[in-house]
Amino acid sequence: MLYHINRRDFVKNSAIAGAGLSLSTDSIKAWSAAKKSTVRVGMIGVGLRGQSHLELFLRRDDTEIVAMADPDKEMMADAQKLISDAGKKAAVEFTNGDYDYRNLLKRDDIDAVLIATPWQWHSIQAIDAMNAKKIPGVEVCGAIKLQECWDVVNTSEKTGVRLMMMENVCYRRDVMAVLNMVRKNLFGELLHLQGGYEHDLREVKFNGGRGKDGVEFGPKAFSEARWRTQHSVTRNGELYPTHGLGPVANLINANRGNRLTRLSSVATKSRGLHRYIVNHPLGGPNHPNAKVKFKLGDIVTTTIQTANQETIVLTHDTNSPRPYNLGFRVQGTNGLWIDNHAGEFNAGLIYFEGVSKPHTWENPENYMKEHDHPLWKRFENDAKGAGHGGMDFFVDNAFIECVKRDVDFPLDVYDYATWYAITPLSEKSIAEGGQVQDIPDFTRGKWKSRKPIFCLDDQY
Ligand SMILES: NC(=O)c1ccc[n+]([C@@H]2O[C@H](COP(=O)([O-])OP(=O)(O)OC[C@H]3O[C@@H](n4cnc5c(N)ncnc54)[C@H](O)[C@@H]3O)[C@@H](O)[C@H]2O)c1
Fold it and tell me: What is d(CA 380, CA 228) in angstroms, rounded to the nearest whole number?
């Protein structure tokens, strides 16, 4: 049908196809009147990521940092310095071990908590927060065990406390422009999507302590090398699914008219981390860590099926020399986009039948500019300087705005559970030679009637 239409008709048709969305947009605006003027926040985990959220919260007039919990006193001092540099009042500190955050949760002057801790703590702390009637915003990773995903959902449903999945890549500017194009039907009916976490993390997984190079991990190391690397020793699976999956899940309306049904994972051999230790000037074949056997395959590939018969391929690739790229591909009956460099409008490739020269890729820049998301246009200046090319502003903004307005989060507890579940299911699949695993329906059937709400307009 779209074979011989010109570009203007193409855009017009697309706008008509997207018209259904503007109705929902109006209804969102109707319930968006702010209820709270200030959100009182407790930070749980003020390491490198917690501090980047803290910096963004400190820029806001509507966010007050009341208290912070972290057993690492150096990280706490760094976080307090950020607060004093911003000219704000010092936060109450909870540094007395791994469970002192529970004392933070007992306070009655906190509305919401931002959890940016090592992966094994996310669900435990989110559950504790909801039981204490504090609204958790939880950083990204995958679950340790499938059951914790159910525990988080059950606690949210029992307490009535909402949770936000703080997946920042969903707000990447090119990803949101593509979301706009999908909603305007430029790609036709979606068929296949790809995404991943393709990031050389070797210098994150190893260092020699704070500010020092080296091949240490565990207690002698700093930040993520202190805890993240151990997961590569004992686990083989899609350990970091949400950066790749979150954006594509929004494109196919997962948990909102669609759902992820099954997955299967395979992994390559494990070479990169050992090779890094052996080849590093501060390591070598006689370094004690050269004896460590890493279980995580260098490249883990997960194929996901959906109720609406799309397929998704996720790639986890963190142990090898390679430039960063999340490797998105969005393909429909009428065309496709391939991302090949971390969010730049003029990188990657795009093709639309009836618009592009037949069988010829186009540079996506003009499409990206034309379909730039209204939220980005509105907050472009506020997002300047925020982490990861500005997208971190948007995820924090959504968290604070939804708490203020007392409305549903665009990325909610069902997204958390579904995305986190990919990790233990992929580990099981790999252990069983790629056996297909069912992905639970954490919405218990509500996905059929839930409507898309992610970024329908320029509000948050
Ligand atoms: N979305 C993103 O772009 C992005 C980027 C980096 C990290 N992350 C995620 O953020 C989270 C934190 O990573 P990070 O880089 O800040 O690691 P980090 O090691 O720098 O910080 C983690 C902090 O948590 C503290 N902590 C440990 N146990 C705790 C407990 N029981 N209670 C309170 N605090 C505790 C540690 O002392 C440390 O200061 C991880 O889930 C990571 O995957 C996300």
Answer: 33
Q: Which two tokens stand for residue 53?
A: 């959220």
Q: How many CB atoms lie within 10 A of CB 307?
A: 15
| 67 pocket-lining for ligand 1 (C-beta < 6 Å) | no
Q: What is the pLDDT of residues 239-257, one digit of tens each?
A: 999 999 999 999 999 999 9
* CA 51–ligand 1 middle distance (angstroms): 9
The residue nearest atom 29 of ligand 1, judged by CA position, is 98
pLDDT in tens, 295-345: 999 999 999 999 999 999 999 999 999 999 999 999 999 999 999 876 677
Q: How far is CA 422 from CA 145, 342, 363, in A?
A: 10, 23, 33
Pocket test for ligand 1, best of 49, 217, 324 (most atoms within 8 A of CB): 49
Q: Tell me if 276 sits within 8 A of 206, measured CB to CB.
A: yes
> What pTM, to 2 d.p., does this model score?
0.93
User: pLDDT digits over 67-103, tens only?
Assistant: 999 999 999 999 999 999 999 999 999 999 999 999 9
Number of helices (H), then strands (E), belonging to the chain: the values are 16, 14
State percent of the chain over pLDDT 70: 92
Mode of pairing for the β-strands spanning 135-138 and 164-165: parallel
Distance CA 180, CA 182 (A): 5
Nearest in space to 178 (alpha carbons), one of 129, 116, 236, 251: 251
The preferred substitution site among 43, 44, 46, 48 for testing ligand 1, maximizing ligand atoms within 8 Å of CB, is 48
